[in-house]
UniProtKB/TrEMBL annotation:
InterPro entries: NAD(P)-bd_dom_sf (IPR036291), ODC_Mu_crystall (IPR003462), ODC_N (IPR023401). GO terms for cellular component: cytoplasm. It comes from the Bacteria. Pfam families: OCD_Mu_crystall. This is Ornithine cyclodeaminase. NCBIfam families: PRK07340.1.
């Protein structure tokens, strides 16, 4: 058995180059296309606990032409230290040749595919897609969701609530740079009556939203992806279950969606994003039926969609400039 030397393989794209391969609308459309693709195979992800509360995630997926694995660490203790909570890479292979074609920046893929999944859900489910949008949590995911909703939905006003005033002001400046209005608010619950779009993007170590949402609200909750994590108060989740609709990203939410599990809800009976995009459950079936909660826990299929789009754009675009590529030493 022979192996190609590592130095002969394509370079690893940095965060900026990875993001450039994954524009918001194209990524949301690729995620929708993946949900229709019967050749997609996504085994259960492996999660290995690490010392001091971290986790190692191994997330493979494949279709008829692309195979990929996301290998990342999640380190909650990095919050507020300047070090990212999520680190790692997405390695992409061409099935026909077995060649490693791309190595994408793992945190960038995670942030963009998560926000693009929320964008896709909002396009199908949000009663008032123009906003204003309330972002709770001004970190990497908060920034990604602000971008996705401004660029992909045309939102023109973003309200920002964060425990870090500096992070909130930095995100507000970024929203202004995107051409939208932004305001920093001290109380997310107080802002809820003014915002029909909401995205909770926190480390999910405590409840950050507990007020009753508007009857025309769409809430994307992405922070909690284990049974012990939580962002939304149980009473809020129970209210939406009783008066509106809860949609989960995949069936894995049945054992991962801490917000819903801690509210005592039967997650297994809830529609999934696939049902919304591919039918028979469609947007029209819930028109005028109260608030919508979209609970996202993550899935390697979303990373595969990002890998497919990045591969296709790599084939269509000229070579990336040297500054955008990290060449192994």
């Amino acid at each position: 058995m022979s192996f190609a030397p590592f130095s002969d393989a394509p370079g690893t794209l940095d965060a900026a180059a990875t993001a450039a391969r994954l524009p918001w609308s194209a990524l949301a459309e690729e995620i929708a296309a993946l949900l229709w693709d019967s050749t997609v195979s996504v085994p259960a992800r492996s999660v290995l606990p690490l010392a001091q509360g971290g986790s190692l995630f191994v997330m493979p997926a494949t279709d008829r032409s692309v195979a990929m694995t996301k290998l990342i660490t999640f380190t909650p203790g990095n919050a507020g230290t300047g070090r990212p909570s999520i680190q790692g890479d997405v390695v992409v292979f061409d099935i026909a040749t077995g060649e490693r074609r791309l190595v994408l920046d793992g945190p960038t893929v995670t942030a963009r595919r998560t926000a693009a999944v929320s964008l896709l859900a909002a396009r199908h489910l949000a009663p008032v897609p123009q906003g204003p949008l309330l972002i709770v949590g001004a970190g990497v995911q908060g920034r990604a969701h602000a971008e996705a909703f401004v660029v992909g939905l045309g939102v023109q006003e973003v309200w920002i609530a964060s425990r870090s005033a500096a992070s909130a002001e930095a995100l507000a400046a970024h929203v202004h740079a995107l051409g939208a209005q932004a305001r920093v608010v001290a109380d997310a619950d107080a802002a809820l009556p003014h915002c029909p779009l909401v995205a909770t993007c926190t480390p999910a170590q405590a409840v950050v939203l507990s007020a009753t949402p508007r009857s025309d609200a769409f809430i994307a909750a992405v922070g909690a992806f284990t049974p012990t994590m939580v962002e939304l108060a149980p009473a809020l989740c129970q209210h939406v279950a009783l008066h509106g609709t809860i949609v989960v990203d995949t069936g894995d939410a049945g054992h991962e969606a801490g917000d819903l599990l801690q509210a005592g809800l039967d997650v297994a009976t809830m529609p999934m994003l696939r049902n919304v995009v591919c039918g028979p459950w469609t947007h029209g079936t819930r028109a005028g039926k109260g608030p919508v909660l979209f609970k996202s826990c993550g899935w390697a299929g979303w990373d595969l969609a990002a890998a497919r789009l990045a591969m296709r754009r790599a084939a269509a675009e000229p070579p990336m400039p040297a500054a955008a590529v990290r060449v192994p030493a």
